[in-house]
Amino acid sequence: MSVGHYENFPVASVLLPAQLRHPVAVIYRFARSADDFADEGELPAAEREARLDDYRQELKRLERGFAPEKPLFSELARIVREHGLPLQLFHDLLDAFSQDVVKNRYTDYAELMDYCRRSANPVGRLLLHLFGASTPRNLEHSDAICSSLQLINFWQDVEIDWRRNRVYLPQDEMQRFGVTERVIGNRQSSAPWQALMRFQVERARALMLSGAPLGRALPGRIGLEIRTIVQGGLRILEKIDKVKGDVYHRRPVLKFHDWPLLLLRALTH
């Protein structure tokens, strides 16, 4: 995946046990397709909301025990039933995507983290339910990893989001560092911009590292999968640091040659 807020989603990789790849893929398809509805910028907001509401109605059908009308939800119903997945987490995702339709600025970090709580954290929580490892401590660590991944995606996609008239950088922090939206529009990597991005990178890194113990708490290939995801996020932050926050001209992405390094770090950290 190259764009979108699920760029760092752990898509049923070879590291996952075979029996979990299909459930993970179904969850991804739900999240990715619903996120795409919110990002259909050429459609009126009302139409995008209507598509998301169709998904809500399908979830309500599942809650009431009725047969789904969409093929995706037939698969979703099966994995929800087999693994005891909380439907509220799917509702949280839809709430976040609906928010993307109508809200394009964030006052402060707390407001942004509330968005991450619904847009990113449910994915990790669903995976822990699949793994049978949804303990309070694991959930806390998972939330930290997922929120960090969401923030990392925001910082690598500043320009992409700007073209959609979205700014995820907290407005109060932009003001504190002396960065206006004109800086983003003009793709300026000025000293204040570099300082603002350095601050965002350091905070996202600290958040990621606070959740990293999850990769050692989970066994075998599942733990290795989580550690690889963590290292992937940290690698993107390294790349943002390397270009001094100039994500306009050198958007940091994971490339083929990064993966051996990530796997080595996942095995040794």
Provide a concise account of the structure shown:
70% of the residues lie in helices and 0% in strands. It contains 14 helices and no strands.
Explain this structure to me?
By secondary structure, the chain is an all-alpha fold. Helices cover 70% and strands 0% of the residues. α1 crosses α3 and α1 packs antiparallel against α6. The radius of gyration is 19 Å and the shape is globular. It starts with 17 loop residues before the first helix and ends with a helix.
Summary tags:
single chain, 269 residues, mainly alpha, disordered N terminus
Mean pLDDT: 91
Helix/strand order, N-terminal first: HHHHHHHHHHHHHH
Instruction: Give the biggest beta sheet.
Output: none
Number of helices: 14
Q: Detail the poorly predicted runs.
A: 1-6, 8-12
Layout of helices and strands:
Layout: H1 18-38, H2 45-63, H3 71-83, H4 87-102, H5 109-119, H6 121-131, H7 136-156, H8 158-163, H9 171-176, H10 181-185, H11 191-211, H12 214-217, H13 220-242, H14 258-268
Helix pairs in contact: 1-3, 1-4, 1-6, 2-4, 4-5, 4-6, 5-7, 6-7, 7-11, 7-13, 11-13, 13-14
